Amino acid sequence: MAERVELVEVSPRDGLQNEAALLTVAQKLELIALCVHAGLRRLEAGSFVNPQKVPQMAGSDAVFAELPADDGVIYIALALNMRGVERALAAGAKQINYSLACSDGFAIRNNGADVAGLLAAWPAAARAAQSAGVAISVTLSTAFGCPFDGEVDPGRVADIVAQAAAAGPQELALADTIGVASPRDVAIRFRAAAAAAPGVRLRAHFHNTRNTALANAVAALEAGVRVLDGALGGIGGCPFAPGAAGNVPTEDLLYMLARMGMETSVDLDRAIGVARWLSRALGRSVPGMVSRAPRFPPLNGP
Q1: Residue range 53-98, pLDDT digits in tens
Q2: Is 298 contained in some domain?
């Protein structure tokens, strides 16, 4: 049997949060429904952050209120602090992704506290979700480099992984927030993370700022990771990370994984259709490549 890779679709959250166009709640729900129709079964559906700082995420409460309750899909809410966790729980989120950082410069701008402060607050946030019967995962942003502090030492990342894992998240992701990683960086950090948090499922989140995201995804697979984030169309970025470009395009990941003989739950042709829908909704071309390329193999053969 082919190995299976789980894809987590982040276009409704990380994908939209840095866009000039503000989609309505109805448009966000349409995007999510299209993703589900394509076969995606875990999606970041919104984030519970200050809408004055991230206006693209306004209306997340309304989005979660309209999501199907029992369709076999996991709709993830992003939170940065206890207040965000409380809002996500009140909105009925069944899974929360909590964001920490590996560099003080980014942590202060994105989360409002340095790394030590974030780690001190994290266990209580994890307990709040776990007490409510809600799964909580944690993403470590700037695990490969920071737009303000520069290089981030792999040993520091491993130490933060160990501290974050102590609170019992069901999954832990390393994020290349500004797209600076190379495959070698990926191998080093994920092997260190596996050693620092034995038994914790690892996930990879790559941005394509410097056109290395697909190569980094392969490096993560070679390091044993079997859960990858992606955004249809390759949209995304962080409002607090200057110059950060989009996520690895989900449809490009799908094409590559299929050619590598790996299975996912997602239909590539439908995923391409969603990427094209996003292009129309945002009023611009999207950076993903596969959605612009001829189908291969051709439907009618040679």
Answers
A1: 899 999 999 999 999 988 999 999 999 999 999 999 999 999 999 9
A2: no
Q: What is the token pair recorded at 156?
A: 């520091």
Residue 104 lies in a domain: yes
- The total number of structural domains that make up the chain: 1
Residue range of the domain that includes 64: 6-292
Taking residue 210's Cβ as centre, other Cβ atoms within 10 Å add up to 13
Query: Does 65 fall in a domain?
Result: yes
Q: Which of 203, 227, 296 is nearest to 256 (CA)?
A: 296
8 A C-beta contact, residue 226 and residue 234: no
Which of 298 and 243 is assigned the larger pLDDT? Answer: 298
Helix (H, G, I), strand (E, B) or coil at 169: coil
In a domain, residue 238? The reply is yes
Q: So which residues are the catalytic ones? A: 238
Rounded CA separation 58/180 (Å): 29
> What CATH number should be reported for the domain holding residue 99?
3.20.20.70
AA letter at 164: A
Q: How many CB atoms lie within 10 A of CB 132?
A: 16
* DSSP 8-state code for residue 16: T
- pTM to 2 decimals? 0.96
Using one digit for the tens of pLDDT, what is the confidence trace for 92-118? Answer: 999 999 999 999 999 999 999 999 999
Choose among 255, 260, 258: nearest CA to 271: 255
